[in-house]
Protein backbone atom coordinates (compact mmCIF):
# COMPACT_ATOMS: atom_id res chain seq x y z
CA UNK A 1 0.00 0.00 0.00
CA UNK A 2 2.76 2.39 1.04
CA UNK A 3 4.70 1.43 -2.07
CA UNK A 4 1.72 2.28 -4.29
CA UNK A 5 1.32 5.62 -2.54
CA UNK A 6 5.01 6.40 -3.07
CA UNK A 7 4.76 5.45 -6.75
CA UNK A 8 1.67 7.64 -7.21
CA UNK A 9 3.38 10.59 -5.52
CA UNK A 10 6.52 10.06 -7.62
CA UNK A 11 4.43 9.92 -10.79
CA UNK A 12 2.69 13.13 -9.79
CA UNK A 13 6.01 14.84 -9.12
CA UNK A 14 7.29 13.63 -12.49
CA UNK A 15 4.16 14.88 -14.30
CA UNK A 16 4.37 18.30 -12.64
CA UNK A 17 8.11 18.57 -13.42
CA UNK A 18 7.53 17.59 -17.08
CA UNK A 19 4.72 20.14 -17.30
CA UNK A 20 6.90 22.91 -15.82
CA UNK A 21 9.80 21.97 -18.10
CA UNK A 22 7.53 22.02 -21.15
CA UNK A 23 6.18 25.43 -20.12
CA UNK A 24 9.69 26.80 -19.69
CA UNK A 25 10.75 25.46 -23.13
CA UNK A 26 7.68 27.03 -24.72
CA UNK A 27 8.33 30.36 -23.03
CA UNK A 28 11.97 30.34 -24.21
CA UNK A 29 10.89 29.48 -27.76
CA UNK A 30 8.31 32.28 -27.69
CA UNK A 31 10.91 34.76 -26.42
CA UNK A 32 13.34 33.70 -29.14
CA UNK A 33 10.67 34.05 -31.84
CA UNK A 34 9.72 37.50 -30.52
CA UNK A 35 13.38 38.57 -30.53
CA UNK A 36 13.85 37.41 -34.13
CA UNK A 37 10.66 39.19 -35.19
CA UNK A 38 11.86 42.39 -33.51
CA UNK A 39 15.23 42.04 -35.34
CA UNK A 40 13.39 41.68 -38.62
CA UNK A 41 11.09 44.60 -37.89
CA UNK A 42 14.08 46.81 -37.03
CA UNK A 43 15.94 45.75 -40.17
CA UNK A 44 12.76 46.32 -42.15
CA UNK A 45 12.50 49.90 -40.89
CA UNK A 46 16.16 50.58 -41.80
CA UNK A 47 15.65 49.08 -45.24
CA UNK A 48 12.48 51.12 -45.79
CA UNK A 49 14.14 54.36 -44.71
CA UNK A 50 17.23 53.63 -46.83
CA UNK A 51 15.22 52.78 -49.92
CA UNK A 52 12.92 55.76 -49.51
CA UNK A 53 15.80 58.21 -49.04
CA UNK A 54 17.59 56.78 -52.11
CA UNK A 55 14.43 57.22 -54.12
CA UNK A 56 13.86 60.78 -52.88
CA UNK A 57 17.51 61.65 -53.55
CA UNK A 58 17.10 60.34 -57.09
CA UNK A 59 13.78 62.09 -57.76
CA UNK A 60 14.77 65.41 -56.19
CA UNK A 61 18.33 65.28 -57.52
CA UNK A 62 17.21 65.56 -61.14
CA UNK A 63 15.17 68.80 -60.85
CA UNK A 64 17.83 70.28 -58.56
CA UNK A 65 20.46 69.54 -61.20
CA UNK A 66 18.27 71.21 -63.82
CA UNK A 67 17.81 74.30 -61.58
CA UNK A 68 21.59 74.55 -61.12
CA UNK A 69 22.43 74.26 -64.80
CA UNK A 70 19.66 76.73 -65.78
CA UNK A 71 20.91 79.22 -63.20
CA UNK A 72 24.46 78.77 -64.54
CA UNK A 73 23.27 79.27 -68.14
CA UNK A 74 21.31 82.43 -67.18
CA UNK A 75 24.39 83.72 -65.31
CA UNK A 76 26.49 83.33 -68.45
CA UNK A 77 23.85 85.12 -70.57
CA UNK A 78 23.87 88.11 -68.23
CA UNK A 79 27.65 88.13 -67.80
CA UNK A 80 28.18 90.92 -70.33
CA UNK A 81 25.22 93.10 -69.30
CA UNK A 82 26.36 95.62 -66.66
CA UNK A 83 22.80 96.67 -65.78
CA UNK A 84 21.84 93.16 -64.53
CA UNK A 85 23.83 93.26 -61.27
CA UNK A 86 20.71 92.58 -59.18
CA UNK A 87 19.85 89.56 -61.37
CA UNK A 88 23.33 88.13 -60.80
CA UNK A 89 22.74 88.24 -57.06
CA UNK A 90 19.40 86.51 -57.44
CA UNK A 91 20.96 83.77 -59.59
CA UNK A 92 23.75 83.28 -57.07
CA UNK A 93 21.09 82.87 -54.35
CA UNK A 94 19.25 80.30 -56.48
CA UNK A 95 22.48 78.32 -57.02
CA UNK A 96 23.40 78.44 -53.34
CA UNK A 97 19.95 77.29 -52.22
CA UNK A 98 19.81 74.49 -54.81
CA UNK A 99 23.24 73.25 -53.73
CA UNK A 100 22.18 73.37 -50.08
CA UNK A 101 19.01 71.41 -50.83
CA UNK A 102 21.09 68.83 -52.69
CA UNK A 103 23.46 68.48 -49.72
CA UNK A 104 20.55 67.98 -47.34
CA UNK A 105 19.05 65.23 -49.50
CA UNK A 106 22.39 63.47 -50.04
CA UNK A 107 23.24 63.77 -46.33
CA UNK A 108 19.93 62.20 -45.38
CA UNK A 109 20.53 59.40 -47.85
CA UNK A 110 24.02 58.68 -46.47
CA UNK A 111 22.69 58.73 -42.92
CA UNK A 112 19.86 56.32 -43.65
CA UNK A 113 21.89 53.95 -45.79
CA UNK A 114 24.63 53.41 -43.23
CA UNK A 115 23.13 50.14 -42.10
CA UNK A 116 25.77 47.78 -43.47
CA UNK A 117 25.17 44.05 -43.61
CA UNK A 118 26.53 41.92 -40.77
CA UNK A 119 28.21 39.08 -42.59
CA UNK A 120 28.25 35.57 -41.18
CA UNK A 121 28.51 32.10 -42.66
CA UNK A 122 24.91 31.00 -43.09
CA UNK A 123 23.08 27.80 -43.77
CA UNK A 124 20.65 29.13 -46.35
CA UNK A 125 17.97 26.51 -45.75
CA UNK A 126 17.97 27.09 -41.98
CA UNK A 127 17.91 30.86 -42.51
CA UNK A 128 14.87 30.67 -44.77
CA UNK A 129 13.20 28.08 -42.57
CA UNK A 130 13.26 30.63 -39.77
CA UNK A 131 11.55 33.24 -41.99
CA UNK A 132 8.82 30.76 -42.82
CA UNK A 133 8.28 30.06 -39.13
CA UNK A 134 7.91 33.78 -38.55
CA UNK A 135 5.19 34.19 -41.17
CA UNK A 136 3.36 30.93 -40.54
CA UNK A 137 0.77 32.68 -38.34
CA UNK A 138 0.07 35.33 -40.97
CA UNK A 139 -0.24 32.61 -43.64
CA UNK A 140 -2.73 30.71 -41.49
CA UNK A 141 -4.72 33.89 -40.90
CA UNK A 142 -4.95 34.44 -44.67
CA UNK A 143 -5.68 30.76 -45.31
CA UNK A 144 -2.53 30.42 -47.41
CA UNK A 145 -0.58 27.16 -47.52
CA UNK A 146 3.18 27.48 -47.70
CA UNK A 147 4.94 24.50 -49.23
CA UNK A 148 8.62 24.55 -48.32
CA UNK A 149 11.15 22.61 -50.38
CA UNK A 150 14.32 23.92 -48.78
CA UNK A 151 16.50 21.15 -50.04
CA UNK A 152 19.59 22.67 -51.72
CA UNK A 153 22.46 20.57 -50.41
CA UNK A 154 25.27 22.29 -48.45
CA UNK A 155 23.78 25.70 -49.21
CA UNK A 156 26.20 28.02 -47.42
CA UNK A 157 26.60 31.68 -48.16
CA UNK A 158 28.31 34.57 -46.51
CA UNK A 159 25.53 36.98 -45.75
CA UNK A 160 23.41 38.95 -43.32
CA UNK A 161 20.89 36.56 -41.79
CA UNK A 162 18.25 39.18 -40.98
CA UNK A 163 18.54 40.86 -44.39
CA UNK A 164 18.21 37.57 -46.26
CA UNK A 165 15.20 36.67 -44.13
CA UNK A 166 13.73 40.04 -45.08
CA UNK A 167 14.05 39.03 -48.74
CA UNK A 168 11.94 35.91 -48.29
CA UNK A 169 9.51 37.75 -46.03
CA UNK A 170 8.88 40.49 -48.60
CA UNK A 171 8.44 37.97 -51.43
CA UNK A 172 6.10 35.79 -49.37
CA UNK A 173 3.97 38.73 -48.19
CA UNK A 174 3.66 39.92 -51.81
CA UNK A 175 2.68 36.40 -52.87
CA UNK A 176 -0.04 36.38 -50.20
CA UNK A 177 -1.27 39.81 -51.32
CA UNK A 178 -1.41 38.60 -54.93
CA UNK A 179 -3.62 35.68 -53.90
CA UNK A 180 -6.24 37.74 -52.03
CA UNK A 181 -8.81 36.91 -54.72
CA UNK A 182 -7.63 33.33 -55.31
CA UNK A 183 -10.06 30.69 -53.97
CA UNK A 184 -8.83 29.40 -50.59
CA UNK A 185 -7.79 25.86 -51.64
CA UNK A 186 -5.57 27.28 -54.39
CA UNK A 187 -3.78 29.77 -52.16
CA UNK A 188 -0.45 27.99 -52.24
CA UNK A 189 3.04 29.46 -52.08
CA UNK A 190 5.92 27.21 -52.97
CA UNK A 191 9.29 28.16 -51.49
CA UNK A 192 12.29 26.19 -52.64
CA UNK A 193 16.05 26.34 -52.73
CA UNK A 194 18.20 24.60 -55.31
CA UNK A 195 21.81 24.37 -56.27
CA UNK A 196 22.73 26.10 -59.51
CA UNK A 197 26.01 26.85 -61.24
CA UNK A 198 28.06 29.21 -58.99
CA UNK A 199 25.48 29.37 -56.21
CA UNK A 200 21.97 28.76 -55.00
CA UNK A 201 18.52 29.83 -56.03
CA UNK A 202 15.58 30.70 -53.84
CA UNK A 203 12.35 30.33 -55.82
CA UNK A 204 9.05 31.70 -54.51
CA UNK A 205 6.02 30.98 -56.63
CA UNK A 206 2.35 31.72 -56.09
CA UNK A 207 -1.01 31.25 -57.79
CA UNK A 208 -2.12 34.86 -57.59
CA UNK A 209 -3.06 37.47 -60.20
CA UNK A 210 0.38 37.38 -61.82
CA UNK A 211 2.83 40.17 -62.65
CA UNK A 212 0.91 43.32 -63.66
CA UNK A 213 0.97 43.68 -67.46
CA UNK A 214 2.16 47.32 -67.28
CA UNK A 215 4.97 46.66 -64.78
CA UNK A 216 7.77 45.93 -67.24
CA UNK A 217 11.14 47.22 -66.04
CA UNK A 218 9.54 49.17 -63.20
CA UNK A 219 8.54 46.13 -61.14
CA UNK A 220 11.62 46.36 -58.87
CA UNK A 221 11.77 50.18 -58.87
CA UNK A 222 11.00 51.98 -55.64
CA UNK A 223 7.54 53.54 -55.37
CA UNK A 224 6.07 51.26 -58.07
CA UNK A 225 2.89 49.76 -56.64
CA UNK A 226 -0.50 48.59 -57.86
CA UNK A 227 -1.94 48.18 -54.35
CA UNK A 228 -4.28 50.83 -52.93
CA UNK A 229 -2.22 51.07 -49.74
CA UNK A 230 1.11 49.88 -51.16
CA UNK A 231 4.37 51.80 -50.75
CA UNK A 232 6.19 50.18 -53.65
CA UNK A 233 9.31 49.54 -51.59
CA UNK A 234 9.17 45.79 -50.88
CA UNK A 235 10.70 44.61 -54.14
CA UNK A 236 13.27 47.39 -54.35
CA UNK A 237 14.43 46.41 -50.84
CA UNK A 238 14.67 42.81 -52.06
CA UNK A 239 16.77 43.89 -55.03
CA UNK A 240 19.07 46.07 -52.93
CA UNK A 241 19.70 43.31 -50.38
CA UNK A 242 20.27 40.66 -53.05
CA UNK A 243 22.68 42.90 -54.97
CA UNK A 244 24.61 43.74 -51.78
CA UNK A 245 25.11 39.98 -51.46
CA UNK A 246 26.41 39.78 -55.03
CA UNK A 247 23.25 38.14 -56.40
CA UNK A 248 20.31 39.08 -58.59
CA UNK A 249 16.55 38.72 -58.55
CA UNK A 250 14.08 38.25 -61.38
CA UNK A 251 10.35 37.75 -61.81
CA UNK A 252 8.32 35.80 -64.35
CA UNK A 253 4.81 34.53 -64.90
CA UNK A 254 4.07 31.08 -63.56
CA UNK A 255 2.76 28.45 -65.91
CA UNK A 256 -0.91 27.96 -64.98
CA UNK A 257 -1.23 31.44 -63.45
CA UNK A 258 0.59 33.41 -60.77
CA UNK A 259 4.18 34.58 -60.47
CA UNK A 260 7.61 33.15 -59.84
CA UNK A 261 10.34 35.19 -58.18
CA UNK A 262 13.87 33.79 -58.40
CA UNK A 263 16.74 35.00 -56.24
CA UNK A 264 20.22 33.89 -57.19
CA UNK A 265 22.80 34.02 -54.42
CA UNK A 266 26.44 33.25 -55.16
CA UNK A 267 28.20 30.50 -53.22
CA UNK A 268 30.95 31.49 -50.79
CA UNK A 269 33.64 30.54 -53.33
CA UNK A 270 31.92 32.60 -56.04
CA UNK A 271 31.58 35.59 -53.68
CA UNK A 272 35.34 35.44 -53.00
CA UNK A 273 36.12 35.21 -56.71
CA UNK A 274 33.82 38.12 -57.61
CA UNK A 275 35.01 40.48 -54.85
CA UNK A 276 38.55 39.59 -53.84
CA UNK A 277 39.11 42.96 -52.09
CA UNK A 278 36.06 42.90 -49.82
CA UNK A 279 34.84 41.03 -46.75
CA UNK A 280 34.34 38.18 -49.21
CA UNK A 281 38.09 37.71 -49.76
CA UNK A 282 39.27 34.14 -49.13
CA UNK A 283 41.27 34.96 -45.95
CA UNK A 284 38.24 36.69 -44.34
CA UNK A 285 36.02 33.78 -45.28
CA UNK A 286 38.52 31.29 -43.88
CA UNK A 287 38.66 33.17 -40.56
CA UNK A 288 34.87 33.37 -40.43
CA UNK A 289 34.56 29.65 -41.16
CA UNK A 290 37.06 29.03 -38.36
CA UNK A 291 35.06 31.21 -35.95
CA UNK A 292 31.89 29.39 -36.89
CA UNK A 293 33.60 26.04 -36.39
CA UNK A 294 35.04 26.97 -32.99
CA UNK A 295 31.75 28.50 -31.83
CA UNK A 296 30.02 25.29 -32.76
CA UNK A 297 27.79 25.59 -35.78
CA UNK A 298 26.25 27.96 -38.22
CA UNK A 299 24.05 30.73 -36.84
P1 LIG B 1 3.99 47.03 -52.57
O1 LIG B 1 3.80 45.64 -52.01
O2 LIG B 1 3.93 48.08 -51.52
O3 LIG B 1 3.07 47.33 -53.72
P2 LIG B 1 6.40 46.01 -53.77
O4 LIG B 1 7.63 46.72 -54.23
O5 LIG B 1 6.61 44.89 -52.82
O6 LIG B 1 5.48 47.11 -53.15
O7 LIG B 1 5.63 45.45 -55.03
C1 LIG B 1 5.44 46.28 -56.15
C2 LIG B 1 4.35 45.73 -57.04
O8 LIG B 1 4.81 44.53 -57.68
C3 LIG B 1 3.09 45.31 -56.32
O9 LIG B 1 2.24 46.40 -56.08
C4 LIG B 1 2.49 44.31 -57.32
O10 LIG B 1 1.81 44.98 -58.35
C5 LIG B 1 3.73 43.68 -57.93
N1 LIG B 1 4.01 42.37 -57.30
C6 LIG B 1 4.90 42.11 -56.33
N2 LIG B 1 4.88 40.80 -56.01
C7 LIG B 1 3.96 40.23 -56.78
C8 LIG B 1 3.45 38.89 -56.93
N3 LIG B 1 3.91 37.87 -56.18
N4 LIG B 1 2.49 38.67 -57.86
C9 LIG B 1 2.02 39.68 -58.61
N5 LIG B 1 2.44 40.96 -58.54
C10 LIG B 1 3.39 41.23 -57.63
TrEMBL record:
Task: Tell me which residues make up the Histidine kinase domain.
Answer: 55-269
Gene Ontology MF terms: protein histidine kinase activity
Q: According to its UniProt record, which reaction does this protein catalyse?
A: ATP + protein L-histidine = ADP + protein N-phospho-L-histidine
Q: Which Gene3D superfamilies match?
A: 1.10.287.130, Histidine kinase-like ATPase, C-terminal domain
Query: Which EC main class describes this enzyme?
Result: transferase
Q: Which InterPro entries does its entry note? A: HATPase_C_sf, HATPase_dom, His_kinase_dom, HisK_dim/P_dom, HisK_dim/P_sf, Sig_transdc_His_kin-like_C
> E.C. number, please?
2.7.13.3
The UniProt annotation puts the region (Disordered) at: 272-299
Q: Which UniProt keywords apply?
A: Kinase, Phosphoprotein, Transferase
Taken from the record, one Pfam family name reads HATPase_c
Which residue windows does the record flag with biased composition (Polar residues)? 286-299
**Signal peptide segment:** none
- Official protein name in the record: histidine kinase
